[in-house]
Amino acid sequence: MKKYLFAASLSVLSLPTFAADSPLTGNITLTTDYKFRGFTQSNFKPALQGGFDYALPGGFYIGNWNSSIEQSLYGGASLESDLYGGYKGKLGAMDYDIGAIHYMYPGSAGPKIDNTEIYFGVTAGPLSAKLFYAITDYFAYGKIARLANPAAPETDGTIYLDLAANHDLGGGLTLNAHVGMLRLKHASAYGVASTVTDYKIGVSKDFSGWVLGLAYLGTDEKNFALTGTMTGARSAGDGKAMLSLTKTF
Q1: By residue range, what is the domain housing residue 117?
Q2: Which alpha helices (H) appear in 130-213, and where do they start and end?
Q3: Count of domains in the chain?
Q4: What is the pTM of this model?
Q5: In this predicted model, what pLDDT tens digit does every residue of 41-66 receive, in sequence order?
Q6: Can you give the CATH number for the domain in which 141 is found?
Q7: Distance between CA atoms of 146 and 184, rounded to whole angstroms?
Q8: Exposed e or buried b for every residue in 193-210, given b needs 16+ CB within 10 A?
């Protein structure tokens, strides 16, 4: 992992530069942990992330985002790769975003782990809300459970609500806050909480296009997910302070 992050750091120094009016943008991030909806995906270790977005005519867009992950969490996969696309427009004073996202874990052994969601979001000034609806078995939750219990139901219909606020403090500083709420379909069949809330509070500083972030992330159901299936797995929802460095180009 250290060699991986060092090589990535060198590549950041020679990032491509796109014209200001180019429809293609990219991003790369080094972070001390990768948390998704409150739960670590990298076993509380550093992660390398990055992706591209392409703006199509008329408000449509497509994109790809990737992150290194903990291998034991997704059946041996060491990469998460997301494909998404949608449409952005205006609704009065609000901006809206509607689309779909597909999460993939190349190389995962056993049952294929993936997830597809449709989403709708609105933004008004510093406030935003986005609702995700799983149209497939939520991250293969039911598919994996059926290895031991053929009667286990699938979890399509799971929803996640993301509420966020970003307040400009001046001088390149921004206060970031987030609350997310997950409602897992058929949670009672698996003996886990039907609703999980995660939260984030942090601050970011823009240094001429390089954004340094410090945030604390946690969840109210720490044992809803574990860090993996190997010996020594522990709660993936433990609260933790995180540092990140992001560059958009």
Answers
A1: 2-248
A2: 141-145
A3: 1
A4: 0.90
A5: 999 999 999 999 999 999 999 999 99
A6: 2.40.160.40
A7: 17
A8: beebbbbbebebeeeeee
